[in-house]
Amino acid sequence: MIDHLIGEFDRVLRTLAAPARSTRPVPGNDMPDAPLDEVTRKQVASLMRVNHVGEVCAQALYQGQALTSRDPRTRETLRQAAHEEVEHLAWTAQRIGELGGRTSLLNPLWYGGALAIGVAAGIAGDKWNLGFLAETEKQVAAHLQGHLERVPVQDQRSRAIIAQMKEDESEHADLARQLGGAELPAPVRQAMKLASRVMTGTAYWV
Fold it and tell me: Is residue 21 part of a domain?
């Protein structure tokens, strides 16, 4: 039990304090960095900060869900998804740095809130746990599509990262549904959208 708790605490520290590492090539890394005016550069950096916060929350959600999941297969699915999301953390952090921006000052707060939500989803039962994963990834994919529509066409490096993230999130959603994830009630889906708007709106600036 002690070893397990240490491992989980280490996961928190690595997400919040250590540079994330990607085993895959960073999408768009071989593309030239397009010149952007100062206003546009700051806007894109803010969008990438929002995406980075989303990946911080994903780590916490999956950790909380895996902690309380009853089914070993569900736990393994959540851990595999979390591993892939670490790559997204690395990609967005690198791009934020290239754009001269910074990650959110509220990352510990985002992590704690998402962890609590993930624990609650796991306690609700595995079909709801997987359903929550599917709905989360569906909403994230839609959010990333919105960012693709806002990032300038000439900024191919940012767009390549966002596009690959969107593809990965959609695959996670499909897998969760295939494993038996139940569709969440409409009020829960709406509450998730509202919470997402609060988070993204705040992270854009802070």
Answer: no
